[in-house]
């Protein structure tokens, strides 16, 4: 059956209804200034629904009728962020915020005050919304900053998210970042309905928002009172944005986004501290939860000069509010053993509600902290969620100590394997000396080795690692590559397909990079950034293993402590044996070019624009960095080459104006292959 021809007057009326309802949504959800009574809005919406039912060709992705949700998904798809969604560093005192300001001015080589944008830090879920041609194309969670989950169908149901940007001349590509949250009133109403229905209550608005966003059935999300507030931008192509962060937010408001009405500008760090105190005083009266204030250098050019560290921008800081504290009883202390053998005392508490969650465990850090607190089992203690995240015991209510309070005895032998517990001179942390003999350390080492940022062994979850170790099937990380199909299918809840998938994932993981392999080894104090620097400096594993501490300190960001840990690790016979076993199992990588000048693209600046079809933006960036190039976000006279995929806009035009060489994706892939990178 062919679609009926739509009369012109019907097309015109549908367009009028689109505009009326879109404006009404914006006034209601974004500006909090409704102009249509609910009954009138409902009549217009039903009229449009009737027209679309009769003429399905009228249904468009930005239609106001398309916010009701759709059939459930089986799972969320994975999304790679074109521009990483970095986290923020935190300050917890005026002194720490002043120190942040000092570092900013020092890096800018300026004694003048710096202007900051001030925004309440909403206690919600960070998301990315991608618009092309003014239409919402994709919504994704932050995830690990590089990869998130596709939650487009759920986000489309949120009234404060524009499906089409308002105003004229939106950018060809606009990625906005913001927070999805649940207002206090909506949260109270949601729990009221849940209680009436005999359902489980949500603990706090943030948990309710997170649970609502992760519904596979978007029709459920559509019933939840979620809001979206924008706080910045990611990828932008086809338009020039203002030169100050606060003006960018105002432009986003003109395009239809909600911005926080409490946003302000501080002329110096003193005004930032005053703003933090003022918002702290009115925190409880706000219609939504906030857990601090975010301060950002307002000038975008200065932001670009300041740049980033591995996980956070140097130009922004989240100043958290004082942590919430409660009193409870310390019932017992247990000792956990981590990947590096650290023996950590964990307080088992009488459950108490602190900072929006029920806390039954808290860290006591180490033996020195127990002695400093003077805490005993049976004491009444004050528990704080430091930074609103990590529960910790901060003090003892001595006046409430019972007569039968017991002294906490730190173990002399590992509670897991019985090996001696040792403390190095000058270290507060006590460690199990058992190494991989200790099943606790072995489990944690294998979990780390298999994690996404390390060897990325899909399907090897924490519970399966524990099961394999407990069953005696796994005694080291190299043992992973000797697991047999028959062993796996014999495990409880392990089917043939899951077993084969795991073996396939193990086989795929054998082809890796030197930096990932170094990170996977779990050397103390060697994170992703340090592993990359070591790989880049030494080029391959053999020279790194032979390096002494003085040679190691020549590596960028490697100081005496890290150099000692790296050298000591490679001196250990069991580490050498394990590395050899992993190489014999088939793990391999292409040697990396050493140093700056030896790399073929060293000293060059490249820019990626448009949508690459074979590689993700992050994969292309990784390849360029391995070849020594710096990857910039904008085109300037200092740019050496621009890689332009489909949809490239203003960056490609600027490259042509400046006579900068450009490549399409095919030429880029050929260049990578010619430099020895397998695609």
From TrEMBL:
It is an enzyme of class 6 (ligase). Its EC number is 6.5.1.2. The keyword Manganese applies. One of its GO terms (biological process) is DNA repair. CDD domains: BRCT_DNA_ligase_like (cd17748), LIGANc (cd00114). Keywords: DNA damage, DNA repair, DNA replication, Ligase, Magnesium, Manganese, Metal-binding, NAD, Zinc. GO terms for cellular component: cytosol. Residues 596-665 form the BRCT domain. It catalyses: NAD(+) + (deoxyribonucleotide)n-3'-hydroxyl + 5'-phospho-(deoxyribonucleotide)m = (deoxyribonucleotide)n+m + AMP + beta-nicotinamide D-nucleotide. GO terms for molecular function: DNA binding; DNA ligase (NAD+) activity; metal ion binding. NAD(+) binds at residues 38-42, 87-88, 119, 142, 179, 296, 320. Zn(2+) binds at residues 414, 417, 438. Signal peptide: none annotated. The keyword Zinc applies. Its cofactor is Mg(2+); Mn(2+). Belongs to the NAD-dependent DNA ligase family. LigA subfamily. This is DNA ligase.
